[in-house]
Design a protein that fits this description.
The structure holds two protein chains of two kinds. By secondary structure, chain A is mainly alpha-helical. Chain A has one domain: ABC transporter involved in vitamin B12 uptake, BtuC, CATH 1.10.3470. In chain A, strands 1-2 form a two-stranded antiparallel sheet. In chain A, helix 2 crosses helix 11, helix 3 runs parallel beside helix 5 and helix 4 packs antiparallel against helix 5. The longest helix of chain A is centred in the N-terminal third of the chain and has 34 residues. Chain B is an alpha/beta fold. Chain B has two domains: about 230 residues, P-loop containing nucleotide triphosphate hydrolases (Rossmann fold, 3-Layer(aba) Sandwich); about 250 residues, Rossmann fold. In chain B, a hairpin with a 2-residue loop joins strand 16 and strand 17. Chain B is globular, with a radius of gyration of 26 Å. Classes of the chains: A mainly alpha, B alpha/beta. Chains A and B meet through helix 8 and helix 9 of A and helix 10, helix 11 and strand 20 of B.
Chain lengths: ~325, ~500
């Protein structure tokens, strides 16, 4: 005999399955239809590399954002940190004549410090993370302009810096290799280290985490700095790719990153943020943008796509979460 | 004014109210007393329309009335003030007073001047001296009670119920409240007054009903009631009849934890206790008597204002739970779902949360060994007989008893000197409860000092060697061995309630 409650649970289970694989199915449909529509351009090796190339930068910054969301905080400053990282790294190399490695290390350290500041503002001053990072994001934009007055730093970049985005290791473009390395490191960190467990516990239930002996405040500071560090890596790679440090170069990465992470959280899991999901989300959005660009759709459609995807992604994520707990 | 006859209510198999009769005259303050879970709240909730009665009748001014929903009670002229006041702290007094009521308006906008004029009557009756624009957040708890009463007085009420109004008031503040209550009754309003404080009941209430296990066991009035007769009714029979037995060797064992004059605000006052190795020390008393707060001090959740804690002969000043854990103190918190578990994560994840270091692959590498983690989790699941489909199942899918075992199990893979369990068997079925009690004794047998906080007075006699009874932040009595009976704990918790 089928009980009424039973039928409802079955329906929920079916819905949950759809949402878990929806992103992947959607991506397959997109790839198929783009391939049929523009067979000469879309399904070529060149275009695939192109998609992957663009997705790498997005994937790294989204990976960092995933960590912030795992601990239950938002980070709206990441795109500003990425832009600043691009400007600062080129400035240090061109104007201050720092060696490439040292400049990159310094920029990563500065970004980590911004992340620590975010974390301290959230935990010690108890400012909501949305507001806190909105504020620090604006301050970072200020630092950016104070440092370079908004003038792009392009000429005189060392060759080895340009090679970051264009060189190859074992036949794989450098930046794709860096992306794989960063995301793999994040995946190991989140799933197989003490800190990773503490990050997830803190996001899952801060009160229970604290009573289990986890120093929740420190873990939040750690999570926020990882988000900032990843953002700076994206900013540095972007500067290498476009061959200049430009004030607002990476600002457009914010919304796609949120969309990707939220899409990913509804993918394969029940609304839990996770790295593999984020990667799938990034490629979903990357393929979508690429196809729309090939079709040459008007700009307003691209904005509709961006906004629509973000709302849809967050919606899917929270529906998945509520279905899972029913 | 208010009559109740043959009122009964059961939840599942538990009879929460058994054939209760009650008579409250017009202008009378009627006190309701009894231990937690005796049926007072059930009675109030039936009157307020929050839950439905099984049988029995309710009369108002002689006529039978039907209360199906809270709106029915509202229309009949009932008003209920719960212990957790329904005020919005950021709103001003006047905004709170008129919450949910139609306000005077002009040109479609609220006319605050007219609203204030309308509210003046109610405000004057409670004697509140603040400007009506003051945010409620700036008022003391006592004044908030007055505002809540004024809110009730904004309409014509016949019966007002107050649930432990003085629980967090000083004695002067209480006096002020009593004055308002007496004035209300002078105007013909009947008051249902729930309290644990016998002295207060004896001085304020005209009629008194004592509840025990769902029945109204004694109805009396101020003239004939005495403190002794009320306590005896609450406890059921004469107190202190338990046969004394020789104490065991508790006193000869080493002390693992000692507190000296520990105080925090007005919730923990000069508590001095000693916990011996292998001893199970119960903290008895009513909800809100300061036991959970005391545990919070021992576990580093809060810091004491004064006093000392000595752990294993050394000064102990935990600044965070992680400090306390580092020194070998563990805590099973009161609320397992909100404080004890990461619900969406697996049994294994939750069980290992308190003890991640030993899971490292190498001492200086913070990579965790999945195999070690699963092995430890399986061992705990086996030891506590946790019933779960697998160690990978999310704890949210487990039954209450098994969830509670996970919260306890979190601490088993670690060597503890002191283990504090706050309400370890609340909301747990009988079988799991017995298993939890057996594990508590077993852990004590291994040499840990254990503190059990429980409001279930049958639990403490079963598991404890010693019980300290707390009342209003103080330890008011200590019971040993055979002295520990349900009746003795109840007697102590009521007898020493401060005037």
């Amino acid at each position: 005999m089928l009980q009424p409650g039973n039928r409802k649970t079955k329906r929920n289970a079916a819905l949950l399955t759809v949402s878990k694989f929806g992103t992947i199915i959607g991506m397959a449909i997109m790839i198929l239809s783009f391939s049929v529509a523009v067979p000469a351009i879309f399904p070529t090796f060149r275009n695939m590399v192109n998609v992957a190339n663009q997705a790498t930068l997005s994937a790294i910054i989204s990976g960092g954002l995933t960590v912030a969301l795992i601990i239950g905080e938002m980070d709206l400053s990441i795109a500003n940190v990425a832009s600043f990282a691009g400007v600062l790294v080129t400035g240090l190399m061109v104007q201050s004549r720092w060696p490439v490695g040292l400049a990159i290390a310094a920029v990563v350290a500065v970004s980590a410090a911004i992340g620590v500041a975010n974390g301290l503002i959230i935990t010690k001053l108890k400012v909501n993370s949305v507001v806190a990072t909105l504020g620090t994001g604006s301050i970072v934009v200020g630092l950016n302009y104070a440092y370079a007055q908004g003038v792009p730093i392009a000429s005189g970049l060392p060759e080895s810096f340009k090679q970051l985005a264009f060189g190859k290791v074992l036949g794989i473009p450098d930046n794709i290799a860096i992306m794989i390395a960063v995301l793999f490191a994040l995946w190991v960190f989140i799933n197989h280290t003490e800190w990773g467990v503490q990050l997830r516990a803190t996001g899952g239930n801060p009160a229970a985490a604290r009573l289990s002996g986890i120093r929740v405040d420190r873990i939040k500071v750690l999570g926020m700095s990882i988000a900032s560090i990843c953002a700076s890596v994206t900013g540095i790679l972007l500067a290498s790719l476009i061959g200049s440090g430009t004030s607002a170069a990476a600002d457009g990465y914010l919304m796609p990153a949120f969309a990707a992470v939220f899409l990913g959280s509804a993918t394969l899991r029940d609304g839990d943020f996770h790295i593999v999901g984020t990667l799938i989300g990034v490629f979903f959005i990357g393929v979508g943008f690429n196809g729309l660009a090939i079709f040459g759709v008007p700009t307003f459609v691209q904005y509709f796509f961006r906004g629509g995807i973000l709302v849809l992604a967050v919606g899917l994520s929270s529906v998945a979460r509520s279905l899972a707990t029913k | 004014m208010l009559g109740i006859s043959g009122l009964s209510k059961s939840f599942g198999g538990v009879q929460a109210l058994k054939d209760v009769d009650l008579e409250v005259r017009s202008g009378e303050v009627h006190g309701l007393i009894g231990p937690n879970g005796a049926g007072k709240s059930t009675l109030i909730k039936i009157l307020s329309g929050d839950i439905a009665k099984d049988s029995g009748e309710i009369f108002l001014e002689g006529a039978p009335v039907v209360i199906h929903r809270p709106q029915d009670a509202y229309r009949l002229g009932f008003s209920f003030i719960h212990q957790e006041l329904n005020l919005i702290p950021k709103f001003s007094i006047i905004e709170n007073l008129t919450l949910g009521q139609k306000k005077a308006s002009r040109f479609g906008l609220i006319d605050w001047k007219a609203v204030k004029r309308d509210a003046r009557g109610a405000v004057e009756r409670i004697g509140l001296s603040y400007p009506l624009d003051t945010p409620v957040a700036e008022l003391s708890v006592a004044e908030r009670w007055l505002v809540s009463i004024a809110h009730a007085l904004m309409r014509r009420i016949k019966v007002i119920s107050m649930d432990e109004p003085t629980a967090s008031l000083s004695s002067e503040e209480s006096e002020r409240l009593f004055k308002v209550v007496r004035e209300l009754t002078a105007e013909g309003v009947s008051v249902l007054y729930v309290s644990h404080r016998l002295d207060e009941i004896l001085s304020l209430c005209d009629g008194i009903s004592v509840f025990k296990d769902g029945s109204c066991v004694l109805t009396t009035d101020r003239r004939s009631a005495t403190r002794q007769s009320l306590v005896e009714a609450i406890v059921g029979g004469k107190a202190g009849e338990a046969e004394l037995r020789l104490l065991d060797d508790v006193d000869r064992r080493p002390i693992v934890l000692e507190t000296k004059d520990l105080s925090k605000g007005d919730r923990v006052l000069n508590v001095s206790l000693a916990l011996h190795a292998g001893e199970v020390l119960g903290l008895g008393g009513l909800v809100g008597s300061g036991r959970t707060e005391l545990a919070g001090l021992l576990f580093g959740i809060d810091r004491p204002d004064s006093g000392r804690i000595i752990l294993d002969g050394e000064e102990f000043e935990p600044r965070s739970p992680s400090d306390a854990i580092g020194r070998g103190v563990g805590l099973v918190p009161e609320e397992r779902r909100s404080q004890g578990l990461i619900l969406k994560d697996s049994v294994e994840f939750n069980l290992n949360l308190t003890n991640l270091k030993p899971l490292r692959i190498r001492k200086f590498l913070c990579l965790l060994s999945a195999r070690a983690s699963a092995r430890i989790a399986r061992a705990v699941v086996k030891r506590l007989m946790i019933k779960a489909p697998s160690i990978q199942s999310p704890v949210v899918t487990l039954s209450g008893g098994n969830q509670q075992k996970v919260v306890i199990g979190k601490w088993l893979s670690r060597k503890l000197k002191v283990f504090i369990l706050d309400e370890p068997s609340r909301g747990v079925d009988v079988g799991a409860r017995a298993e939890i009690h057996a594990k508590i004794r077993e852990l004590a047998g291994e040499g840990a000092g254990i503190i059990v906080i429980s409001s279930d007075n049958e639990e403490l006699p079963r598991v404890c060697d010693t019980v300290a009874v707390m009342s209003e932040g103080r330890v008011v009595g200590t019971l040993r061995g055979a002295e520990i009976t349900k009746e003795a704990i109840l007697y102590k918790s009521f007898e020493h309630a401060a005037p």
